[in-house]
Amino acid sequence: MKRILDVCCGSRMFWFNKTHKDTVFADVRNCSLAIKDSGCASGIRHIIISPDVQADFVHLPFADETFSMVVIDPPHLLHGGKNSWMVKKYGKLPMQWKHIIHDGFVECMRVLKKNSILVFKWSANDISTKAVLDVIPFNPLFGHPTKRHGHTIWMVFMK
């Protein structure tokens, strides 16, 4: 069995090895997108979301304590229209987002082995880090914020 689970893998953007042999890539979406992007030479950016397992991170099809590491990079946007490239690329949370983040986090901890690590990436553009931590029933060990393209923070939790 593979040891790492990425539950909201999207197009695997932050992975150096997008086909890492010890990782199960999961996402609720499975699609190819062509998005207008003036930053690309062609004017169109192609995004492929092709998970190994198509699953919602609030209902994972894995047994308890299966993985040694779980990575969560859930949708973080509340605002944006159906044609927004950000929404197409990253997904969008409903206005009643709190139960989704809470339940998804609890589910990820369920499939994580004891004494193992959960890595959580959050972008606080629409929902503050404090607000998201208030709905998660676990405390991070540490984290690192960056403002490269917004207000992203990486946090590490241990079960």
From TrEMBL:
- Protein keywords: Methyltransferase, Transferase
Q: Which domain of life is it from?
A: Bacteria
InterPro entries, alphabetized? SAM-dependent_MTases_sf (IPR029063)
Gene Ontology MF term list: methyltransferase activity
Biological process (GO) annotations?
methylation
Q: What is this protein called?
A: Methyltransferase
